Amino acid sequence: MIVRAVMLFAVLAILPGLAAHADPASSPARTGTASASTLAPAAPAFRACLQSLSSPARAAGVDGDSFRRFTDGLEPDPEVLVLLDAQPEFTTPVWDYLAALVDAERVADGRAMLAEHADLLARIEAAHGVDAATVVAVWGVESDYGRITGRRQVLRSLATLACDGRRQAFFRGELFAFLRLLQDGDLTDPQLGGSWAGAFGQTQFMPSTYRRVAVDFDGDGRRDLVGSIADALASTANYLRQSGWRPGRSWGREVRLPDGFNLGQAGRRNKATVATWSQRGVRLPDGAALTGAGLDGATRAAVIVPAGRDGPAFLVLANYDAVFSYNAAESYALAIVFLAEQLRGGPVLPARPWPTDDPGLSRQQRRQLQHHLLALGHDIGEVDSLIGDRSRRAIVAEQQRLGIEPADGRAGQRILRALQPDQTTPTRDATVPDEGQQP
Ligand SMILES: [Ca+2]
Description:
By secondary structure, the protein is mainly α. It has helices at about 5-15, 35-40, 45-60, 65-70, 80-85, 95-100, 105-115, 120-130, 130-145, 155-165, 170-185, 205-215, 230-240, 275-280, 320-325, 330-345, 365-375, 390-400, 415-420, and strands at about 150-155, 195, 250-255, 270-275, 300-305, 315.
């Protein structure tokens, strides 16, 4: 989370989910690993760089003893430099991103978490004003409810990125923030794992965000977003509240745009009142007036069309912006609010299908696809629902064999159906994003 543009390409290039979820072994960026050694800071240069950081670290509140203790013997990790400069080979359509992040498994797991942590979540809502479903949805998307938090050593990644690459000033700040968390006892494990860019823990905060907004909610005196679910979830709520979350309000609604709607008026920053949007002909999907759905005419809102005129449209309010600030990507914010909607028993969104004849796959369907590819003799590694280079190459081979055009390696419903052993039984309606999601 709070990964900003530096990780945005990874968010969009790697599924499922965020960079922290992605095993670099399956990342498109992995193809650049062979050249990693040429990009690595030479060890003496790295050590000299670290030494030179000791003084600015002190200015940031990291004392000399702590700095030496935590950075002594640290080696650079050249792979993170490759990841920093990696360009996506695939742009992931919003419907693929959502199919994997808001799938039946994540909804079922989220409902279990809502039940298991009901008391805690009620106390968090009372303290920070953010509802349980939204907090749990962020948790589910960020780390699959704490299951996937990243395995790359954060300290090593941040030290490398602070000494080499194109965003050293930014990563120095994050390195110093991480050292402060260790020095102050919020964190206890210098070997802690996280994403390649330094986001870690249950909710994938970057260190500076952690220092700024983390709260100790279980009262043990430490802000522990790695080991304490209470601290992590309360900190997420605190972050959203500080980002403009309005208690008791909605994120927005799916809407229907009038014929000839001026798309120049769309976009998250183009705010107008709900009453103005009504005058412009924006309606609820069933044609009813916006103000009939509990929306106040004076509320400021924007209209977004993530897949253009032929796809679904949404009226989004301040709480959508708060979620967006967590990780500045439209597809990310939609994943959170759609998942939250289902967690509170609402409908599968969007009602209007995405404009594609080849919808995306849930994680379960990705695993099915990988099983089929393995059965066909393709060496794609483990079945893990992450579609990496080897899976894509195998899909291209199968697309060519089956005459599917374009043979682009896309992991969608079309190739999955084509590889189903029993072609006489349609697996499902292709326009429905995932099985089992109906409330
Ligand atoms: Ca605590």
